[in-house]
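User: For my dataset I need records formatted as: sequence, then structure tokens, nothing else. Please produce one.
Assistant:
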Amino acid sequence: MFLNSTDWSFPVPIYYGPKRIDELPAICIKQDIQRPLIVTDSGSASLPFITKTLKSLNSSGLKASSFSGISPNPLDTEILTGKLVYKDGKHDAVIAIGGGSGMDGGKAISLMANNNYSLWDFDNDKSKIKDIKKFPPLICIPTTSGTGAETESTAMVTNTDLKMKLCVWHPNQKPIAAILDPELTLELPKNLTAWTGVDALVHAIEAYSINSLYSVADAMAIEALTLIGRNLRTVVKSPQDLEARGGMLIGSCLAGISFQKGLGLVHAISHMVGAIYNSQHGLTNAILLPKVLKFNQDTINHKVEVMNYATFGKTEGFDDFYSNICNLLDKLEIHRGLNSLGVDASKVSEIALKASKDAAASTNPRQATIPQLEKLISNSLVNAR
């Protein structure tokens, strides 16, 4: 099934299938794009397909170049540099390629490209934005099955003054296309395959756990859990299994769509750990997931059987679901504590305070006080499951 090509139009035009990356020049030409800027992260910059894609665009008569100065946790200073590269190159579109960092960097640069507002004017408030200039066309191409950021406008960027990860976005900025090519994920190392896969799993769990009426998002989350449950262990064990890679890529995309509903404390805490320690986002999420599930238990009990069946084919309640999650994390060789990322007790209060201000904290199914966040983080430092 996942070896065939197909297109969708919800929530943005999506082009799925092996070798669909080869259609990028034609998509650009159809959209009257002439000078695209590829934005990717520093880790992806040296991958052969980036060079191949750049060559393919230029061979098609376009004048493309690339910017790869994006860290694993994108910094506001890097976005400003990217904007200058965009302006100096007289570019007219952004092609964001990579995992979450590459796509977040590209989306943030496209927010600022034609506007003189501060990056932080595009936070959740937006009260300072009056006259907005048209955003450049944005094309997103994921190279991991985790972030699910290819169909929506939000970007997570670290404010280097506050040492906080903040969300920037604008409702008028959405990708004009997302290309999901599972072949781009084949060379992802075993550890990153596991970490990004659990990131997608967390997206679906947190979105579905929110107690609000958003049936479309719930349906996306459950289908995402089904695809991830079937394919995550396979892609870690057999990384060249293109069928399983395709299932994971679609599962990740659906999980990304589902969190239009919101996220929860795993992400609220993980964002701030990443801002302070520059930790890998998916791995941080994976470590935090068990303790957050326990914290939320009483408010998600009525939803657990559905999630357990979708992910593991089991119909039992919370204890079984929790055990299945922990067993999966063990099989994926996920670290057992935040201390493995360098997090120590001296930063717990700072992380808790900053996490309490994260938008994802407000949609967690159980509201947490700062002392409760401190306890949750402390309990996740060592033996978090």
